[in-house]
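ok so for the tutorial part 2 we go from a plain amino acid sequence to predicted structure tokens. step 1 is just haveing the sequence, like this:
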Amino acid sequence: MKKRFLIVLLLTGALINISINETVNAQSSDSPQPLEEFFPKIGYKTVESALKDFEQHYKKELKLPLRVPPISFTHRFGRFNNLDGDMNDTFELTMISDQFPQNHFKIDVRPVQHKIPFKKYISKVLKLKNGSDAAYINNPRFGFNMLVFERDGWQYMFGVDRDVSDKVTSEVLIEIANSIDYTNESIS
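step 2 — the prediction. this is what the tokens look like for a chain of 188 residues:
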């Protein structure tokens, strides 16, 4: 009887040990996938390539800002969302940091004829240097503070993670939007 008990106890201990080792091994090799591997799997590519696809689709130039928020980023990705019809086709630029997840800045652009209405969410209306209005949206629902404006037939939506809104204020977003006003000759 004692012999059986010892054998059962030994087998149980061995199974527990194997189970613990497998769990530990699974957890130790369970690291997040690098952003440069993950983002392409969900349709992102270089900003330049996505911009080219978007411009070819609409047969129209899209200007992007020269300025970026004053926070650090480790990655920039672009994506052209070409869905059924033109209504939901957008250009998307995402800047993120794999070291500081709150450092996330996003630009979405779509034709103004398919713009998203944000009127009921507007916190304040600001002026761009070209005289047009820009709507600032500070709504916890979105997780992002946003600046929305129209120019050259496009609706631009800038979004920045709320956790960095002390560094990337509405004024900073306006400066970024104003940096779209450049000529190609001035940056050559």
